[in-house]
Structure formats: C-alpha cells, structure tokens
Design brief:
Helix content is 68%, strand content 0%. The protein has 228 residues and is mainly alpha-helical. α4 packs across α8 and α9 packs antiparallel against α10. It is globular, with a radius of gyration of 17 Å.
Length: 228
Amino acid sequence: MNSLDPAALLLLMQLSSPALPVGGFSYSEGIESAVDAGWISDEQTASAWICDQLELSLARSDLSVLGEAVKAWRIFDTPRLKSLNDWIIQTRESSEARLQTEQMGRSLVEWIKNQDVVDQLRLDALNALSPTWPLSFALVVSSLNVEITDCLLAYAFSWAENMVQASIKSVPLGQKSGQRILATLRQKIPEAVQYALALSDNDRQTFTPGLAILSSLHETQYSRLFRS
C-alpha cells in the first residue's frame, strides 16, 4: 500500500482542521434555519439532513469544482481557473452562500501568505480571481504530491466537521451524537468524492431549492448563532 508523504499528509490534516483560521465554524449552511423550521430536531434528522446535503449539493458542485481546479492549478490554466471560480460565484443562491465562499476564500489567501506552500506567481493569479473557497483550497493542495481523491476527501471531511458542530450547537446535540453522525459521513464521503470526480462540466449543478429558501430565510431569522 502506498502511503502519503508525511509532510503532505500533515498539510492535508491542517487544511481539514477546525483550527484553520478561515471561519468555517461560523456558518451552518441552512442547518440553523432548518432547526428553527422544525425540519431538524434530533440526531436522526440532523444526520439525514447533512448526508443529503453531502450527496445532493456538495458532491454535485463544490467537490466537482475542486477536482477540476486542482488539475488546472497544476498546469496553471488561468482561463480554466477563472471559469471555475465564476461558476462558484454565479451558482450561490443567496447572499449568505456567496459571502461564505468569498470570505473563506479570502481568509485562506491570508493564511497562504504566511506559509511556504505555493509560489508567488500562482498566489497572484489566485488574488486576481476574487477567490472562492474551493479555488483557494485547490491551490494549496495542488502543490502537494497527492492524489486528487485525497484532496477531495480532506475538503469533504472539513465540511462535515463544520456541519456536525453546527448541528451540535443548533439542535442541540451531545458530542456522542455528533460522533455517530461523523461515523455515518465517513462511510458516505468516499462515494460522494468518486461521484464528484466523474461529473463533467455539463453535469455539475447546484439545484437545491429547499436549501436556498432556508438560506434566504436565515438572513432575517431572529436570534442567530451562525452567519448562514
């Protein structure tokens, strides 16, 4: 069995850590609104919600873009990178969703500036894009000698941890419930990643109207913990 280079593995772990200073913990991506609406009320409904979001939203959109963006960064295809970044921005269905991907993208740029992980030419190209979160993440991992599948697994697990923590705080749930949900997601993430890698540009989509409605409602929701 081939193992990852230790430095590459540790950087992937750092990027997927909740301690990464990009603010992912401050977004619930509709979970807080779903709790307010009564759609999520316990461990079972929270688990079902996050698993559905993984399969119907993340795998069909951001994970697919991430895979293509890693390839584009490795050959420095700037027109392709701009097209992918524009797609992310244009398919955000609420101001909150766009705020999240742009804020986290900018925050990762600031992190990159203090790390010796990418060259200045590529960092300048990223800044010129008004970078979204998937494009910024893709730049960092593209510098590593790792499979694209591993890059997507790290990205998806980082997202999963944030969603589980949002559920723990919003429902609320106990830590054991959160760990059981993560165990379920561990089983589903590899399949979601393979699905994302197989999508063409024409197949990629973000049709999740229920999530978009909840995101819009959250903008005026009373007493919020999260930014989305």
